[in-house]
Amino acid sequence: MSVVTLTVNGQEVAVPAGTSLMGAIKAAGASVPALCHLEGLTPVGACRLCLVEQEGTGRLFPACTTEASEGMAIATHTPELQAYRRMAVELFFAEGNHVCAFCVANGACELQNVATEVGMDHSRYPYRYPQRQVDASHPQFTIDHHRCILCTRCVRVCDEIEGAHVWDVASRGGSCSIIAGLDQPWGEVEACTSCGKCVEVCPTGAIVRREDTTAEKRPHRNWPELLRSAREQHVWLNQ
Ligand code: SF4
Ligand code: SF4
Ligand code: FES
């Protein structure tokens, strides 16, 4: 096994070749915020919260989708990166309708957690108050697009782990959204097996169980193990 050596915040770390910067950061005992990344799913680099800086060059790389290379020196928490991350999180809140007090995910929301981590106490950007759809056509689950941050975890888990590919991303820019089937009501998509994997991986209150009311969504705490067993042994531990 070949190994690459690099430094993370000045600390030298050796990782197997092919490891992502995210893996190297973890190996160095450090961490960066992440919303779209979930161990076990293919990384896509969508949220840009995990950007790190190559020391001495000012170049930024998404840690989840960049491979660690020999001799790299990266910094994870420069003042610029921290300011940038706070701005990115503020924009997430301004872009959707996040009224946490009335949300199923309140208290179990990764967007809330990241907001706390980056020190966000308010958004400096004007709220857009978009008018989006709530699709409650599925007998067990609901998707509220106002709370979707387009991380595509639902798309990837449905495609890569369940193999049903119910979810996809449609359109671009401000009209970009997650769609079920051929942009159908979720409850009408025959390919949906009602397995609930998309519910489990959604980091916010966008996809939830119908019976859950405000602040009742529970985060799953064992994601890497769960996804690994689903992928390798075809066993989904919570079913
Ligand atoms: S998804 Fe998270 S951030 Fe958005 S309203 Fe719900 S709890 Fe708040
Ligand atoms: S519905 Fe949830 S998991 Fe899917 S893209 Fe939106 S926030 Fe991510
Ligand atoms: S976690 Fe790397 S871009 Fe989202």
Secondary-structure map:
Layout: E1 3-8, E2 11-16, H1 21-27, E3 51-54, E4 59-62, E5 73-75, H2 79-95, H3 110-117, E6 134-135, E7 141-144, H4 153-162, E8 167-170, E9 177-180, H5 197-201, E10 207-209, H6 223-232
Parallel strand pairs: 1-5
Antiparallel strand pairs: 1-2, 3-4, 3-5, 6-7, 7-10, 8-9
This protein binds iron/sulfur cluster (2 copies) and FE2/S2 (inorganic) cluster.
Residues 143, 148-154, 178, 201-204, 206-207 line the site of one iron/sulfur cluster.
Please provide a written account of the structure.
The chain is α+β, with helices and mostly antiparallel strands and 239 residues long. The protein has six helices and ten strands; from the N terminus they run ββαβββααββαββαβα. It has helices at residues 21-27, 79-95, 110-117, 153-162, 197-201, 223-232, and strands at 3-8, 11-16, 51-54, 59-62, 73-75, 134-135, 141-144, 167-170, 177-180, 207-209. The strands form three sheets. A five-stranded mixed β-sheet has the order 2-1-5-3-4, covered by helices on one side. The protein has a three-stranded antiparallel β-sheet with strand order 6-7-10. Strands 8-9 form a two-stranded antiparallel sheet. A hairpin with a 2-residue loop joins strand 1 and strand 2 (11-16). The model has no long low-confidence stretch (mean pLDDT 93). One iron/sulfur cluster (SF4) is lined by residues 98-100, 103, 105-106, 109, 111-112, 147, 204-205. The site of one iron/sulfur cluster (SF4) has 12 residues, from helix 3.
